Amino acid sequence: LISPQEITVLVGVIDEKNTCPIGWSKFNHNCYYLSEISDSWNAARMDCRARGGDLVVIDSPEEQNFLSTITTDVWIGLNDKEQEGTWKWVDGTPLTLMYWATTQPDDGGEEDCAYINEWGRFWNDYFCSYSHQWIYKTCPVGWSFNHSCYLISKSSASWDAARMDCRDRGADLVVINSPEEQV
Ligand SMILES: [Ca+2]
Ligand SMILES: [Ca+2]
Ligand SMILES: [Ca+2]
Hints:
This is C-type lectin domain-containing protein. This protein is α+β, with helices and mostly antiparallel strands. It has helices at about 40-50, 60-65, 160-170, 180, and strands at about 10, 25, 30-35, 55, 75-80, 90, 115, 125, 135-140, 145, 150, 170-175. Strands 2, 3, 4, 5, 6, 7, 8 and 9 form an 8-stranded mixed sheet that branches. The longest helix is centred in the first third of the chain and has 10 residues, at about 40-50.
């Protein structure tokens, strides 16, 4: 068990005080950006990682609605490259909330990467090598991204004071959900 006094990491749920980089859209405590160029799914993902974010992982109906307002085809962080028919998000979570277009995914000749389709606003699987624009997702300025947003406090404080500071920032103390997070 972790002693509460040792926990000085905050996890986001981030409030209005936390801003996104200039030109990015803020939605529900995260920052989003539409790529200017089109490229393959792999190239899109590499570019997102290089910018300290990742391809978008859609984890709520609100986020799907928000992304539906984009009027072009965009890669999302979802693929079944590892095992045909087993769709996984780039953060390792299995697919539970789904917005596939009618008759999709159809793997019409090795289609292993998902994008939001411009005509239906729902998802289609397609050739990973095809060029689409994509959506970056990251955290507000100053927070580190690791699929959730984290802020490491620079000062030490009691657990109660730490919690109050987190609440003040619209966040809370980190809840450790996975062995990766403990590291
Ligand atoms: Ca496949
Ligand atoms: Ca497939
Ligand atoms: Ca398809």
